[in-house]
Amino acid sequence: MRLRQYLMCAAAIAGLSLAGCSGTSLIPNTSSGSGSDGKGGQPVPSFTQFTDIPMPSNSSLDMDRSIIFGASDAWHGRLVLNSGGTQAQMYDFYEREMPNFGWSKVTVVRADISVMVYDRENRVATIKLSGSSFSGSTVDVTVSPKG
Is this prediction's pTM over 0.90? Predict the structure, then answer.
Protein backbone atom coordinates (compact mmCIF):
# COMPACT_ATOMS: atom_id res chain seq x y z
CA MET A 1 0.00 0.00 0.00
CA ARG A 2 2.82 2.42 0.87
CA LEU A 3 4.62 1.57 -2.35
CA ARG A 4 1.51 2.41 -4.34
CA GLN A 5 1.21 5.81 -2.61
CA TYR A 6 4.90 6.48 -3.20
CA LEU A 7 4.61 5.65 -6.90
CA MET A 8 1.53 7.86 -7.33
CA CYS A 9 3.31 10.76 -5.62
CA ALA A 10 6.42 10.26 -7.77
CA ALA A 11 4.30 10.17 -10.94
CA ALA A 12 2.54 13.41 -9.98
CA ILE A 13 5.86 15.17 -9.31
CA ALA A 14 7.30 13.90 -12.59
CA GLY A 15 4.24 15.10 -14.49
CA LEU A 16 4.45 18.58 -13.00
CA SER A 17 8.18 18.70 -13.69
CA LEU A 18 7.65 17.76 -17.34
CA ALA A 19 4.92 20.37 -17.70
CA GLY A 20 7.47 22.96 -16.58
CA CYS A 21 9.73 21.91 -19.46
CA SER A 22 7.11 22.53 -22.14
CA GLY A 23 8.59 25.88 -23.14
CA THR A 24 5.39 27.80 -22.45
CA SER A 25 4.30 29.45 -19.27
CA LEU A 26 1.58 27.60 -17.39
CA ILE A 27 0.21 30.83 -15.92
CA PRO A 28 -0.30 34.28 -17.42
CA ASN A 29 2.84 36.28 -18.01
CA THR A 30 3.38 39.27 -15.77
CA SER A 31 3.87 42.58 -17.42
CA SER A 32 6.75 44.87 -16.59
CA GLY A 33 7.47 48.55 -16.79
CA SER A 34 4.21 50.39 -17.38
CA GLY A 35 2.28 47.32 -16.24
CA SER A 36 3.43 47.60 -12.64
CA ASP A 37 1.06 48.40 -9.84
CA GLY A 38 1.96 52.10 -10.00
CA LYS A 39 3.67 51.99 -6.60
CA GLY A 40 7.07 50.98 -7.90
CA GLY A 41 6.32 47.48 -6.68
CA GLN A 42 5.19 44.19 -8.06
CA PRO A 43 4.15 43.66 -11.68
CA VAL A 44 0.47 42.94 -12.16
CA PRO A 45 -0.75 39.83 -14.03
CA SER A 46 -1.25 40.18 -17.76
CA PHE A 47 -3.99 38.12 -19.37
CA THR A 48 -2.62 38.55 -22.91
CA GLN A 49 -1.74 34.84 -23.01
CA PHE A 50 -5.46 34.01 -23.03
CA THR A 51 -6.68 35.26 -26.39
CA ASP A 52 -9.85 33.18 -26.52
CA ILE A 53 -11.56 34.13 -23.23
CA PRO A 54 -12.70 37.64 -22.28
CA MET A 55 -11.08 38.98 -19.11
CA PRO A 56 -12.77 41.75 -17.11
CA SER A 57 -10.49 44.76 -16.70
CA ASN A 58 -11.25 45.04 -12.97
CA SER A 59 -10.03 41.54 -12.10
CA SER A 60 -6.92 39.93 -10.70
CA LEU A 61 -5.71 36.35 -11.05
CA ASP A 62 -5.77 34.14 -7.96
CA MET A 63 -2.48 32.36 -8.61
CA ASP A 64 -2.95 29.88 -5.75
CA ARG A 65 -6.22 28.51 -7.13
CA SER A 66 -5.47 28.65 -10.88
CA ILE A 67 -3.77 25.96 -12.96
CA ILE A 68 -3.26 26.23 -16.71
CA PHE A 69 -1.76 23.81 -19.23
CA GLY A 70 -0.88 24.97 -22.73
CA ALA A 71 -1.17 28.46 -24.17
CA SER A 72 -2.94 30.66 -26.70
CA ASP A 73 -6.14 29.01 -28.02
CA ALA A 74 -5.05 25.51 -26.95
CA TRP A 75 -4.94 25.92 -23.17
CA HIS A 76 -7.08 24.05 -20.70
CA GLY A 77 -7.37 24.21 -16.95
CA ARG A 78 -8.81 26.57 -14.39
CA LEU A 79 -8.55 30.34 -14.01
CA VAL A 80 -9.81 31.90 -10.80
CA LEU A 81 -10.32 35.65 -10.92
CA ASN A 82 -11.14 38.05 -8.13
CA SER A 83 -13.27 40.76 -9.69
CA GLY A 84 -14.19 44.21 -8.44
CA GLY A 85 -17.53 43.88 -10.24
CA THR A 86 -20.62 42.34 -8.72
CA GLN A 87 -21.78 38.87 -9.64
CA ALA A 88 -24.56 40.41 -11.77
CA GLN A 89 -22.05 42.61 -13.61
CA MET A 90 -19.79 39.63 -14.32
CA TYR A 91 -22.78 37.58 -15.55
CA ASP A 92 -23.72 40.37 -17.98
CA PHE A 93 -20.08 40.76 -19.04
CA TYR A 94 -19.61 37.09 -19.95
CA GLU A 95 -23.05 36.78 -21.56
CA ARG A 96 -22.18 39.75 -23.79
CA GLU A 97 -18.50 38.95 -24.49
CA MET A 98 -18.28 35.16 -24.90
CA PRO A 99 -19.99 35.17 -28.33
CA ASN A 100 -17.50 37.86 -29.46
CA PHE A 101 -14.74 35.32 -28.81
CA GLY A 102 -16.45 32.57 -30.83
CA TRP A 103 -18.12 30.74 -27.94
CA SER A 104 -21.70 29.43 -28.22
CA LYS A 105 -23.98 29.27 -25.20
CA VAL A 106 -24.92 25.72 -24.14
CA THR A 107 -26.77 26.45 -20.90
CA VAL A 108 -26.87 28.92 -18.01
CA VAL A 109 -28.20 28.90 -14.48
CA ARG A 110 -28.56 32.30 -12.84
CA ALA A 111 -28.76 32.00 -9.06
CA ASP A 112 -26.79 32.77 -5.88
CA ILE A 113 -23.98 30.86 -7.59
CA SER A 114 -24.41 31.23 -11.35
CA VAL A 115 -23.03 28.72 -13.85
CA MET A 116 -22.57 29.42 -17.56
CA VAL A 117 -21.50 26.76 -20.06
CA TYR A 118 -20.18 27.58 -23.54
CA ASP A 119 -18.57 25.53 -26.30
CA ARG A 120 -16.21 26.39 -29.13
CA GLU A 121 -14.85 23.92 -31.66
CA ASN A 122 -13.46 21.04 -29.55
CA ARG A 123 -13.50 22.80 -26.15
CA VAL A 124 -16.00 23.56 -23.39
CA ALA A 125 -15.84 26.52 -21.00
CA THR A 126 -17.67 26.51 -17.68
CA ILE A 127 -17.89 29.83 -15.83
CA LYS A 128 -18.94 29.80 -12.18
CA LEU A 129 -19.80 33.17 -10.65
CA SER A 130 -20.15 33.72 -6.92
CA GLY A 131 -20.37 36.79 -4.73
CA SER A 132 -17.45 37.58 -2.48
CA SER A 133 -17.91 37.88 1.27
CA PHE A 134 -16.27 41.33 1.28
CA SER A 135 -16.89 42.97 -2.08
CA GLY A 136 -16.84 42.12 -5.75
CA SER A 137 -17.14 38.55 -6.96
CA THR A 138 -15.18 35.42 -7.79
CA VAL A 139 -15.06 34.15 -11.37
CA ASP A 140 -14.02 30.53 -11.85
CA VAL A 141 -13.36 29.67 -15.53
CA THR A 142 -12.68 26.02 -16.38
CA VAL A 143 -11.82 25.09 -19.97
CA SER A 144 -11.52 21.47 -21.04
CA PRO A 145 -11.55 19.40 -24.22
CA LYS A 146 -15.00 18.32 -25.45
CA GLY A 147 -15.98 14.74 -24.95
Answer: no
